[in-house]
Design goal:
Strand content: under 5%
Shape: globular
Order of helices and strands: HHHHHHHHH
CATH class: Mainly Alpha
CATH topology: Serine Threonine Protein Phosphatase 5, Tetratricopeptide repeat
CATH superfamily: Tetratricopeptide repeat domain
Number of domains: 1
Number of strands: 0
Structural class: mainly alpha
Helix content: over 70%
C-alpha cells in the first residue's frame, strides 16, 4: 500500500500506510525510519524527531544515529532535537558512544566547528576500547531480520 501511495505521489497516504504498519509492529525499524524521513522531507521536524526517538529506543546504534543526522538539512528544530536526544542514548549505553560522533559530523556539515569539537571531546573521554567496541557492533542499518 505504501508503495502504491508513493507511485501516486500521495505523501499523506504513504505516511498513513507506514503508521498502520507500526500499529502491527511498533518495533518495525524500517517503518520508523521511513516515517522520520517522510516527515523531515515534509518539514515537520517535530514529528520526524518523535519517530527518530522511537527508532533509537528500538535500535540504538551508530548506523541509526548516522541515518538520523543525514536527515538534517539546516540548523533548525530537527538539529536542536537531535542535540538534546542523542547524548542521552550515548550516556545510557557506554558501548554505543556513536551518538557523539554522529553529532560531531552533523555540526561539522553545518560549519559549526566549535560545536563539533565539543562532541568530539565527549567522545575522546570514552576509553578507546569501549569506543572501538561501540563502532564495531551494529554496523548495518536498517538491521536485517
Amino acid at each position: 500500500m505504501a508503495a502504491r501511495c508513493l507511485a501516486k505521489d500521495d505523501p499523506a497516504g504513504h505516511r498513513a500506510a507506514l503508521e498502520a504498519a507500526l500499529d502491527l509492529d511498533p518495533c518495525d525499524t524500517l517503518s520508523l525510519a521511513a516515517l522520520a524521513t517522510a516527515y523531515a522531507r515534509a518539514g515537520d521536524d517535530k514529528t520526524a524527531l518523535r519517530y527518530l526517538r522511537e527508532l533509537f529506543t528500538v535500535y540504538s546504534s551508530m548506523p541509526a544515529y548516522t541515518f538520523a543526522i543525514g536527515l538534517v538539512t539546516a540548523d533548525g528544530p530537527l538539529a536542536k532535537g537531535l542535540r538534546e536526544t542523542l547524548p542521552a542514548f550515548a550516556r545510557a549505553d557506554q558501548c554505543t558512544q556513536g551518538a557523539y560522533a554522529a553529532l560531531a559530523d552533523m555540526e561539522r556539515r553545518m560549519g559549526r566547528e566549535s560545536a563539533a569539537d565539543h562532541w568530539e571531546r565527549l567522545l575522546d573521554a570514552v576509553s578507546p576500547e569501549t569506543r572501538f567496541f561501540g563502532y564495531a557492533k551494529n554496523t548495518e542499518f536498517p538491521p536485517s531480520a
